[in-house]
Amino acid sequence: MALLMLAGCTNNNKENSTETATSDMVSFDEVLATRRSVRSYDATKTISEAEVRELLLATQEAPSWANQQPSKYYVAMSPEKVEAVSNLVGERNKQNIAGAPVLIVSTYEKGKSGFFRGEQTNEVGDGWGAYDNGLSNAYFILKARAKGFDTLIMGMRDSDALRTLFNIPENEAIMAVISLGYRSSEPRQPEHRPLEEVVEFF
Ligand SMILES: Cc1cc2nc3c(=O)[nH]c(=O)nc-3n(C[C@H](O)[C@H](O)[C@H](O)COP(=O)(O)O)c2cc1C
Known about the structure:
The protein is of the alpha+beta class. The protein folds into two domains: about 1-35, no CATH class; about 35-185, NADH Oxidase (3-Layer(aba) Sandwich), CATH 3.40.109.10. It is built from nine helices and eight strands. It has helices spanning about 10-15, 20-25, 30-35, 50-60, 80-85, 90-95, 125-145, 160-165, 195-200; strands spanning about 5, 25, 70-75, 100-110, 115, 120, 150-155, 170-180. A hairpin with a 2-residue loop joins strand 5 and strand 6. Bound molecules: flavin mononucleotide. Flavin mononucleotide binds near residues 96, 155, 187 and 190.
């Protein structure tokens, strides 16, 4: 089974990765099981740009339509920008992400995934761009968890104001805002629908 690092995002861990392989690594299943939408963050902990870059590199491993890679990311790390973005996700979300040191806006370039030579390939159209963006974001949040971070994907956001704030071009569809930080309390476990309800085997 593939093993991933959890709860260790310091350079020390990287340097000692061989020596600490058994003690610091958890299974991919553990990453899946402990990744939750986190709505309370430890404001005393910071995250470096290098750490964020490492998570964003993981998004580039995600599959995309004809390798179009339509996803783009706008990263707020300065206190001013983080504050500005947190004001654009609604009051409830704003409260829930207080203390998260990084907020990231994900977008996709329209007219790429789902298109061939400018022609829409099937009925889904730009929906494939949204699909690819969701895949990239999934890689991001799982990589984040593997490195000991926590995230919250937010679909409630003011896209017009975000477009202005980051000068996002009109050919990009603005999707989620993702908070990145460290949990300050254990998130609740959501209920999951039974497989029988959502899967049919033939
Ligand atoms: C596209 C999308 C939009 C979401 N928007 C919000 C949001 O605005 N606020 C929020 O608190 N949670 C939001 N969530 C988180 C979901 O509520 C959460 O994923 C779901 O309840 C399952 O919980 P879990 O992530 O802990 O497994 C969103 C999740 C997705 C995938």
